[in-house]
């Protein structure tokens, strides 16, 4: 499917998510790094500063990949979805422990964010065209080359 034409709504969604991820990745690399440490679970066995820096770089790379690698949007979209799944335990921990960080200063805000995580996963998978059905004829045609 990555070789197929990308619809305008998917292209816009890919660009928007790419821009969001790139911006989100740059934010913890600057003066807000200290606030992002609060989003790393205390039980996580890696230094919180390192986690913040690495996750910021990963977000930038994934955002740029969404923006620049349209021909690989299926793979990139699935990797982005997996990234959102991977960071969910940290978001859940932040809610359960009531840790305030970067604008998430009450339980309501932290809980609201938890409901957006599955939407982000779905968004990335939609961009990747994971939910698109193909006919048997189309699959045969692409398998034949």
From TrEMBL:
Q: Where are the transmembrane segments?
A: 12-30, 50-69, 76-94, 114-132
- The source's superkingdom equals Bacteria
Q: Which keywords does the record carry? A: Membrane, Transmembrane, Transmembrane helix
Q: Does the keyword Transmembrane apply?
A: yes
Protein name (record)? DoxX family membrane protein
User: Which species is this record about?
Assistant: Actinomycetospora aurantiaca
